[in-house]
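Hey all, sorry for the wall of text incoming. These are the two entities for the joint prediction.
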Amino acid sequence: MVKSTRTPVISAEDLTGGYGHRAIVKNCYLSVEEGEFVSIIGPNGSGKTTLVRLLLGLLVPFSGKVFFRGKLLSQIPRSDLARQVAFLPSSVETTFGYKVKEFVALGYLPFSLPWQQSPEEEKIVQESLNLVDAASLAESSVREISEGEKQRVFLAQTLAQKPELLVLDEPTSHLDIGHQCSVMNLLWRLNRRQKVTIICVLHDLNLASDYCDRLVLLKEGRIFSAGCPSEVLRPEIIESVYQTKVLLSVNPATGRPHLFGKPEENFP
Amino acid sequence: MKSIVLFLLLSICCILIATVLGPGEINLLNLMPTLKTPGVERTILLQIRLPRVGAGFLVGAGLSLAGAVLQSLLRNPLAEGYTLGLSGGASLGICLGIILRQGFLLPVFAFSGAMVSMVIVLAISQRHHFSGATLVLLGVVLNFVFSAFVLLLLAVSRSERFYQVFFWLVGDLSSFPELSLKITGPVIVLVAIYLVTNAKVLDAMSLGEEKAASLGISLKQTRQRLITASSLLVGCSVAVCGVVGFVGLVIPHLVRILVGATHRRVIPGCFFLGGCFLVLADGLARVLISPLEIPVGVITGFFGGLFFLTLLTSQRGVRVW
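and here's what came out:
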């Protein structure tokens, strides 16, 4: 064990939890340090989203503990937590046609009273929209913008929450490669420049490899492997978790490992 | 702010127009003189017309607000007291109250009925992840069950108060009990004030529960409060004039088109526009086949039903599921 002098931002001890009586996440130990960019990866149904929900206190664990900056998570009021941690779920509802700027302003809710509209709010909305390069969308309706734009606006909303820890559940799903990269670049900039700690569930192993400091690989609700990309993305590990043959290479742009699926033997 | 002033002016106009609508020699021009000179016309105005308009305004406001709250809470543009079966529950409560001869407690019976039905809707929809039209289907089923119970009550009690019960099922402002209004009026206004001061909470809830929780909303507490608020609004409205359908569906949509989706503007908008709508609909009910009257529920049912149909079939604008 490497001795750390700082308290981790968030840590889980022997965390087990799920829905009803069925445990989805089992006996997880996890600790995320200040300023890290961590990705949770794993096959479908391996418990990535459940783990995130447990870490955020959105789901009460069956057993085990979650600490936020050394304090037991269940003892921190939701409104206090919301001033430090922002979460982007895999789906945000856009049933009603809020204007983008009104939608983003909701991220500032933890800092304002439920009926108040402060002048700072406007400033922060503007800043958040600038950060995600969506200032031109301010007056549009959230129902009438494209998927890629929506994802950026959702991100702007979490940024208006001025988070120290940002947790995202598959922020790049349903996006094309251009939008995928722009979202990941943005997260990377936030992490490096604004020193936001990021935990991000990702489906795409190569994106995770390129951008993240540390990967946490789940298999059937347990942490199968954790460490820097080159430690986790090894063919023997991936093959035993995903039950498929892969080839390892390197992304020439980042020097990080990249994996390729291997077609069947007699594929043309 | 500007929109609130406009809504206020509109409300005053609607109330004035509605007050002079109906049989009698009153019109906008002789309104003031009539009010000054004692006589039959003055009595009609002060003791029949004005209370009726006031009741209509509050009921319309209450039902529209309930619609806005339910739509945000369930993230479903088809939700409202009528389509979800809250009104059905409230009217069953009223029937029980009438048969047990609890005139004074009618609003409480109505509230309890609405609350029971709201809790059922929420429990079932959360367990089975109902959304969109399925949720409304659940409301239809509840309405069926409640009206079966009402018929059962009528059959068993052999109540001579059959007509009285019928009146609650249709939605009619022609002979509302003033006692009920004195209790329910303040309740509707208080709930409206509570909702305005919590507008951002409604905004947050409409983003989905996980997002709301991560914005610092305590879900359990908020859900309980909003369930109580909508049940109070629907229960109080039904206690005044029976089941008036679709107001809670039409008005919030109209308001969102006019002032946008933020609840800081939607809530006052629903209050005023909902009030105006029902006051005018009731005025229409009085004059359409004068000297006879149509129950106002028939008028809102007709227009609201058509609106509901357009929502269901619309390609653009309001996407339903």
